[in-house]
Amino acid sequence: MNVLLFGGFLGSGKTSIILQVARYLVKGFSKQQLESDKPSLVIIENEVGETGIDDKILKAEGLNVRELIAGCICCTLNAELTVCLNEIQEELSPQWVIIETTGMAFPHTIAETIAKYGKGIDSLKTIVVADAERWDELSTIMPDLIEEQIVKANIILLNKIDCLEPEQVCGVKESIRRINPSALFYAISAHDEVNPQIWRTAVTYCE
Amino acid sequence: MSEWSTKHSGPAIFSETQTLGFLEKVTSEKIQQSLILWVKEISDWSKDKAYLVGHIKVFVEGLENLWLSSTGRSINIKHSQGWSEWTADMVTLNVTAIVFGTSKKVLEEVAQERLKACFNFGTELYK
After folding, report:
1. Number of structural domains in chain B
2. Cβ <8 Å between A49 and B17
3. In this structure, what CATH number is given to the domain that contains residue A144?
4. Does A53 touch chain B (CB under 8 A)?
5. Would you say which domain of life the source belongs to (chain A) (predicted)?
6. Is the ipTM of this complex over 0.95?
7. From A15, A48, A141, residue closest to B1, measured CB to CB
C-alpha cells in the first residue's frame, strides 16, 4: 500500500490537486483493477466542522472516500486516522491511499504516527500544497504553522501561480526553499490541468 | 495584521447542511448567483472586520452538483456537466466558512442571516 499524505493551509487547493492526482492514478489501473470489487485507490478525508464538503466533491467523481470529520487531525484524530488506515489495509489492501489532512494539521506529525503504527505500508510520502497567492499574508500572520507544515515535506506543490507575476513566484520559491531545501518542488496552477509528468514524477518518487 | 498563535486560538467554524425547498422551480443560474453572493458577503464582512478567511466552501447536492471555494479573494467555480441546464424545486446545500479572528457565535449569526437574504425568493428551509 502506497500512501500519499497531503497537507497545506486552508484554501491552498489540496482537494483540487487530489482530484487530478486521483484521475492520474485511476488512468494507470489495469482493467482487472477497475472491475474489481475492491478499489485500488481509497481517499481518507479529514475535515474541520460538522459538514463534510471535500468528501462529497470526491465522491461525485466516483472515488472511494472514507471520512474523518470533526476536530483537527493534528490534535485529535491521529489515532483514528491510523485505525482507519489499518482497517483499509485489512479490508481492501488498495495499491494507493491518499490522505487529505485539515488545513491546520502538521503533516509530518501525522506521517510519523502512520510510519510507526500503520500496517502494510510500502511507501509514505508527504506532499504539502502552498498557496502562492496568500504566501506573503499567511507567512506573516502565522509563520510557525506555515513553516512547520512545509519543513519536512517530501514534495512541495506551490499552487495558484497564475495569481502572481513570474518574478513574484521566484520570490515565493526562494522563501520556501529556505524552509525546506531538499523537497521536490513544483510550481503549478491546479485551476487548469497540471502537466501529468509532474504527477508521474511524484508517484514514481513515492514508489 | 498581527501574528496569531494558531496553537491557542483556533478559527471560528460555520459548517452546516441545509435542504432548501422552492415554491417554484428555480434555475441553476439563480442558485449559483445566490451562493456567489453569499460567499462574497462573508468575504467582504471578514475583510471589513480585518479577519482572516481560512476558506469558504459550498457544495450543492442534487441531480447536478455545484462547488464554490474561496479564500476571501476570487471565487473558484466548478460544476457537473448538466448543471447549466438544470432547474430544481429542492437542493441540499453543504456550506463551510472558516474565519480567524471572530467567534463561532458571531460567524454563525452572520452566515445564517446572509444566507437567508441571498435566498429571498420563495424559499423554505428544511434542516
Report:
1. 1
2. no
3. 3.40.50.300
4. yes
5. Bacteria
6. no
7. A141
